[in-house]
Amino acid sequence: MLKLRGKTLEIKFEECVTCNKEKFYRLAYTYVKNSHDAMDILQESILKGYSNLSKVKDIRALDKWMSRIIVNTALDFLRKSSKETVIDKESIIVDKVATTADENLSYAIDALDPGLKTIIILKYFHGYTINEVADILEISVSTVKNRMHKALSLLRVDIKEV
Length: 162
Known about the structure:
The chain folds into two domains: 1-97, RNA polymerase sigma factor, region 2, helix turn helix motif (Rna Polymerase Sigma Factor, Chain: A, Orthogonal Bundle), CATH 1.10.1740; 98-162, Winged helix-like DNA-binding domain superfamily/Winged helix DNA-binding domain (Arc Repressor Mutant, subunit A, Orthogonal Bundle). It contains nine helices and two strands. A two-stranded antiparallel ribbon has the order 1-2. It is globular. Residues 89-98 have low confidence and may be disordered. The relative contact order is 0.11. A hairpin with a 2-residue loop joins strand 1 (3-4) and strand 2. By secondary structure, it is mainly alpha-helical. The longest helix has 21 residues, at 141-161.
């Protein structure tokens, strides 16, 4: 067990996962659009995070570190899975409730390159600042800004076409 000022790192990790479980689930679900796959990604990410606790550099950024693991695990899952999309009952219900504009935006975001999609999801759906997105993705702030500008430009073009 790794000691950290009276509390073990494992306990801090458990607290982080417990406090952010809904946010982490939504992050995984944003990529796969399937509740079962999102849960699998989340479980695999928690296991990866726990087994790599010794690599944590900043305990205060444990939630960002876990978000990074979830994003990478989701992207790996998407690369490994076939191009065929499986839709569960929850997705069908959500699609029926969504407006046409919401559907168009969702499809436009899904069509983005994974690197651009990740930045949009972290910034606009999960509320991270540009600096936090840069930390999570381990890229420079200027790269985040450039990619965000490119993604927003592509989204504007896609939405105007519809």
